[in-house]
Amino acid sequence: MKTIKGPAIFLAQFVDKKAPFNSLDGMCKWASDLGYKGIQIPTWENFLIDVDKAAESQTYCDELKGKVNSYGLEITELSSHIQGQLVAVHSAYDILFDGFAPEKVRNNPKARTEWAIENMKKVAIASRRLGLDFHGTFSGSLLWHTWHPWPQNPKGLVELGFKELAARWTPILNAFDEQGVDVCYEIHPGEDLHDGVTFERFLKATNNHKRVNMLYDPSHFVLQQLDYITYIDHYHEYIKMFHVKDSEFNPTGKKGLFGGYGDWFDRAGRYRSPGDGQVDFKSIFTKLTSYGCDVWAVMEWECCIKSPEQGAREGAPFISSNIIEATKKTFDDFAGLGEIDEAYLKKILNL
Length: 351
Description:
The protein contains 13 helices and 10 strands. By secondary structure, the protein is α/β, with parallel strands linked by helices. It has one domain (about 5-350): Divalent-metal-dependent TIM barrel enzymes (TIM Barrel, Alpha-Beta Barrel), CATH 3.20.20.150. The protein has an 8-stranded parallel barrel with strand order 1-2-3-4-5-6-7-10, surrounded by 6 helices. The longest helix is centred in the middle third of the chain and has 23 residues, at about 155-180. About 40% of the residues are buried.
């Protein structure tokens, strides 16, 4: 067993033009004052980290890490969800996802993909320079538009989609392997890796690449009505990152899983602040601790009702209250009888 580290916070959803959310110093002080011990940094926010500099300069990385440490914080992981998304974008989503890409590669899907792949390789180097072993990202998607197969998917379509996805990711995975860093895909609706079966498809397509791992976020599984507790039994050896995010699923006679094209507030499945939804975090923390998962518990705020400020304030004590200090002894050790005595054991068995 292993005690989960935390509490930590993912900074992405709190970025703003106003202080303290517009500078690394401001966000570090804010997070530290709230009781967090770690921050997860989104690499697409240049004011938090310059990926180009981080890939080129150990001095820059040492100074960045030192600044974070000066606030009593650790960098838990870097995140590249945006860049990972852009590694694989189906043409149906080109216009929407172009807004995430640098202007120089917009309206040019091939150039956008190439930029994303090269940026991911730089993130791998940055992670190692910062002394990090795990990295969080999205897989992107070539197949999401086919997940409800009507009209029917032609035979071989899914296999070809995962073959192409693996081909795009293999150079990135190799780059991370050179740096000794695991790639943790957030298993997420909208991505080709959105449940256990699709994770296994991708793992197989990459020839079981040893750097393929996962970021576990139970909120996405509530929305899919997937058993997120048993999921840990199946995949605990791959779980290297953990987002503490809540959600709820409240279907009615008018709407269910598909949502009726409503906004987040009006959907049957919606994200909530930790503790406000339906996720059984006590069982999750118990499972992850029991399996010895070496993870940071990182609060991710996405709620359609509660403010981010309140969510952040409540997040640190919520995580702390769920972290289990893994025991190093059994409660009835006092009744133990010391070393193995084979003669004594035979006597008990009347042998």
